[in-house]
Amino acid sequence: MHIQTSMWGEVEVQEKDVYQFPKGLPGFEEETEFALIPWEDTPFSYLQSVREKDLSFLLVSPFTFVPNYSFELSEVDKEELEIVEQVSVYSMVTIHSQTNKSTMNLLAPVVLNPEQRLGKQVVLHQSLYETRHLIWTEDEEDKSVKGGV
Fold this sequence. Notes:
The protein is 12% helix and 32% strand. The protein is mainly beta. It is found in: Cytoplasm. Pfam families: FliW (PF02623).
């Protein structure tokens, strides 16, 4: 399947990488079909609308930067996503003009069922996680400045 993107022009995506979001995403309820496109040689991916080339979100696995990240998915969310075993979790990323101030949303992860190709952004109620969690800590910034990362 070929889709249009604002970043790469026309790209080919596999059916296995296209997810249905029956309720859309918050603020974009009318967009219900997105392709997950890996950003090669990085831990990031793009969630690209199949219909709207200018609508995409930068995603990252929160576990890459917060290894102890965890939450309990509600039974309602499990049923909506038809989750039996497999699940993938991503956080939406906001790139700041100063890259070291870029953040990820740990409070509302994007949860994907790769078996049924269903997705949903889930809001974690009664959670201490933030919508703007810094991706890079000062230690990681120091490494990257010194060439360690």
